[in-house]
Design brief:
By secondary structure, the chain is of the alpha+beta class. The protein starts with 13 loop residues before the first strand and ends in a 10-residue tail after the last strand. Belongs to the ARF family. This is Auxin response factor 16. It is found in: Nucleus. It comes from Ananas comosus (Pineapple).
Length: 343
């Protein structure tokens, strides 16, 4: 009997249109093409787990900190509790691995890097006023003019009813009005119920997406996350979080706001063990979680391993802007080398 999909361990997720998925994931998110060769890093995978798993039985042999695999399938999904998008990636470490028929026919990519896939979107970081369940949502002018249908500004007041679908297919009705002194765009009726249902807080990012072909509107989120693991060599400034506190948060909200906490630790151990034994396995990947990728194109890993890294070398890191609408480069200097570190 085939093992259950990892995503079925949690509340069943929703399948998401690849183009909407890409808009919600952000420009920096990457999906390895089905059939491509990648390197799977168990230690990177472990950083996405609820609590650090023990991988010593798999990685204790002193070999390379990664496994070469082929991407044989995948699905683009949304978490029903948090409305965050994620991907289920199926990997096979055997040399003869080939994509499954299901995978070959699946809609996986919503356009290449830099391609909007026929969608337009706008991202806003919620303010305290926006997240207040007793108030309304202040709509940036650019969003109102380029994402929402045009208002009849000759009416008094200019007002319309919007129907916007969440990532699970539920349609939400909002009153969009243009009023005040000075005038501004607002979502009023319907917003409070929506904000309460989605458990929105200040710092969450809301993404409004429009299908350019028919005007259909969608809404997704990127949750404000708390950082975790003060001992991380990659993020030395992270603050420690009380595990009991986070368990209470998961119990109350149905999802964790910790940057860790997306994947059960046991699933990481099982994936690493399967990779070590040469068996096919699945991983769940949440983009924009504040942590690095752990399924990386093989060519990039090989190219990086050919670089004679040394202390003092100048390096460039591409970083996504806060609202995920732009990418910019950050320059730095290598200050230390970790020969056995997966990074």
């Amino acid at each position: 009997m085939a093992p259950p999909r990892l995503s079925s361990i949690l509340q069943p997720p929703s399948a998401v249109d690849p183009r909407v998925w890409r808009a919600c994931a952000g420009w920096s998110s990457r999906l390895p093409p089905i059939g491509s060769h990648v390197c799977y890093f168990p230690e990177g995978h472990a950083e996405h787990a609820w609590y650090p798993p023990d991988l010593s039985a798999v990685l204790g042999g002193g070999g390379a900190p990664f496994f070469r695999c082929r991407v044989v399938g995948g699905r683009l999904l949304a978490n029903r509790r948090s409305d965050e998008v994620f991907s289920e990636i199926r990997l096979d470490p055997s040399p003869s691995a080939a994509p499954t028929e299901e995978a070959a026919a699946a809609a996986w990519s919503g356009g290449g890097e830099g391609d909007d896939g026929g969608m337009a979107w706008f991202v806003k970081i919620l303010t305290e006023s926006d997240a207040n369940c007793g108030g309304g949502f202040s709509v940036p002018r650019s969003c109102a003019e380029h994402i929402f249908p045009p208002l009849n500004l000759a009416a008094e007041p200019p007002v319309q009813t919007l129907s916007i679908s969440d990532l699970h297919g539920t349609a939400w009705k909002f009153c969009h009005i243009y009023r005040g002194t000075p005038r501004r765009h607002l979502l009023t009726t319907g917003w409070s119920k929506f904000a309460e249902s989605k458990r929105l807080i200040s710092g969450d990012a809301i993404i409004f997406v429009k299908d350019k072909s028919n005007g259909d509107l969608f809404v997704g989120f990127r949750r404000a996350l708390r950082l975790f693991d003060a001992d991380s060599p990659f993020l030395p400034f992270l603050a420690e979080i009380d595990p009991e506190e986070d368990e209470r948060t998961i119990s109350e909200l149905g999802f964790s706001r910790c940057v860790r906490g997306r994947i059960p630790s046991a699933n990481v151990v099982e994936a690493a063990r399967s990779a070590d034994l040469g068996r096919p396995f699945e991983v769940l990947y949440y983009p924009k979680a504040g942590l690095p990728e752990f399924v990386v194109p093989e060519a990039e890993v090989d190219a990086a391993m050919r670089v004679p890294w040394k202390v003092g070398m100048r390096v460039t890191l591409s970083v996504e802007g806060e609202d995920s609408s732009t990418m910019h480069n950050v320059l730095g200097t290598g200050q230390n080398l970790h020969g056995v570190c997966f990074r």
